[in-house]
Amino acid sequence: MDWGTELWDQFEVLERHTQWGLDLLDRYVKFVKERTEVEQAYAKQLRSLVKKYLPKRPAKDDPESKFSQQQSFVQLLQEVNDFAGQRELVAENLSVQVCLELAKYSQEMKQERKMHFQEGRRAQQQLESGFKQLENSKRKFERDCREAEKAAQTAERLDQDINATKADVEKAKQQAHLRSHMAEESKNEYAAQLQRFNRDQAHFYFSQMPQIFDKLQDMDERRATHLGAGYGLLSEAELQVVPIIAKCLEGMKVAAEAVDAKKDSQVLIELHKSGFARPGDVEFEDFSQPMNRVPSDSSLGTPSDGRPELRGSSRSRAKRWPFGKKNKPRPPPLSPLGGPLPSALPNGPPSPRSGLDPLAILSEISKSVKPRLASFRSLRGSRGTVVTEDFSHLPPEQQRKRLQQQLEERNRELQKEIDQREALKKMKDVYEKTPQMGDPASLEPRITETLNNIERLKLEVQKYEAWLAEAESRVLSNRGDTLGRHTRPPDPPASAPPDSSSSNNGSQDNKESSEEPPAEEGQDAPIYTEFDEDFEEEPASPIGHCVAIYHFEGSSEGTISMAEGEDLSLMEEDKGDGWTRVRRKQGGEGYVPTSYLRVTLN
């Protein structure tokens, strides 16, 4: 079925339909153009968003870039940026393959449609012109026939009129004969014109217009096919980028799975671990001691001479507790910076034997303790810190890492200079053997410069090695006997464990300590008096039980080993130094880190 046969009389319908098809094509082109603008704006906004949230500093200068969370976020942003690039590619493909091609094709279709309808209208005009000629000849024939009939009637009337002259009758007959002849000619002309119009009309409706309609049908079908292909290009442009977009989405998924909380915790430790020992307990300042006006041998913290006694190395075991079980001595308290509190400070409080008022002594002790607390804040650093070449302004652990980095960098530079020196030597040998290739003397300045760089770098390596050794010794001294575990238990206390053997030699220590001179400045010495028992030690009973959360290897004096999950008897609670005394079921008693235990008191 074709338009020429079935729609031979629907010229206006075909004109409207073909115009609607071209309008639809133009609407689709406009839609794709606006879709391209949307894609470009979307890609531009995505790129702006990625640029806004990307780190401003280089990765090597940004400590946050070492965390897996930050790395995953940066990777996620990069994948979004790649996704934006694919949207731009979609916009470009739509613009080139759809907008330009279909717009060009639409113009061609409009020209072709215009040509076909001009041809159809010209055929219509020709047919209408033939029909007008037919109508004119018909009216002329009709008019001539009436005039001939009228002339014949006039001639007959004059012929019968007796009063009419013969000349009048002859003239009327001639006129009637002339009109009859003219009517006959009009008839022949009308017949010829009618035959011609019928032939033209048959050609118009059965040949000429069907051909034009068939051409319009072919044009419209080609337009529809091309438009359908344009619809397909819209999806093809998307399908072309689907694999890349799938890779982008897969990259986002990989980035999400790459977040490692444990690793980030370890990275935070590596970045900010200071290496300092934990600060010790702040000593109790007993302002009530001067209130004891009557000296007594049983007074706690007040010797027989009425003066408050400061616990020093010479009086550490001068008194014993008059009751209760024997307590094993605990490690000395630590300062906030990890070291023991000094027994005397420069320009600080005098010795307890100087005869000053007890309130004055306690006041001086308070003044000596406050700077210790303030010094803890100095561990955090400040903006006004002066950066030194040996990184001594950093905490010990960070100083060690920075020195290690500098040492590795210097070693790489040194190896590079050595390789360059070897290459220059080989080149010089080649020049000496083959003078036409170059002058050996021209390499001397570069060789000299390389040797100077090597010497300079060697000195720097030695300097950094010395600094690194000093920093490592400082870190090891602060670290103590910390043991690494695959389960990563908490660090044991920075202070040394209590000496279990000291309690067995209490009387001997008392004798020796009474003869020791007063402690010097900076020497480790506790401030307050510690009392022990004066009588025989009785077997102690457990005050609770505990379970080992982590394995601990008691390698230092006073400690005891324990396995993970082992049940232990609690003999003495933690006194604030991080150590707890326990007893094993198999026998053996000693100190273990409190953080390694789950304690239950009786």
Automatic annotation (TrEMBL):
Pfam families tied to this protein: FCH, HR1_TOCA, SH3_1
Domain F-BAR, chain residue ranges per copy: 1-264
Region of interest called Disordered, as start-end residue ranges on this chain: 280-358, 478-542
Subcellular location: Cell membrane; Cytoplasm, Cell cortex; Cytoplasm, Cytoskeleton; Lysosome
Polar residues bias (residue ranges): 289-302
PROSITE patterns: F_BAR (PS51741), REM_1 (PS51860), SH3 (PS50002)
Domain REM-1: 393-470
SMART domains in the record: FCH, SH3
Coiled coil: 124-175, 397-474
One Gene Ontology term from the biological process aspect of the record: signal transduction
UniProt biased composition (Acidic residues): 530-539
Ranges of Low complexity composition bias in the record: 336-346
Limits of the SH3 domain: 541-602
CDD domains: F-BAR_CIP4-like, HR1_CIP4_FNBP1L, SH3_CIP4-like
Annotated Gene Ontology cellular component terms: cell cortex; cytoskeleton; lysosome; nucleoplasm; plasma membrane
InterPro entries to which the protein is assigned, alphabetical: AH/BAR_dom_sf, F_BAR_dom, FCH_dom, HR1_CIP4_FNBP1L, HR1_rho-bd, HR1_TOCA, SH3-like_dom_sf, SH3_domain
Keywords, sorted A to Z: Cell membrane, Coiled coil, Cytoplasm, Cytoskeleton, Endocytosis, Lipid-binding, Lysosome, Membrane, SH3 domain
UniProt biased composition (Basic residues): 314-329
One MF annotation (Gene Ontology) recorded for this entry: identical protein binding
Similarity comment: Belongs to the FNBP1 family.
PANTHER family in the cross-refs: CDC42-INTERACTING PROTEIN 4, FCH AND DOUBLE SH3 DOMAINS PROTEIN
Protein name: Cdc42-interacting protein 4 isoform 1
Organism the protein comes from: Sus scrofa (Pig)
Gene this protein is translated from: TRIP10
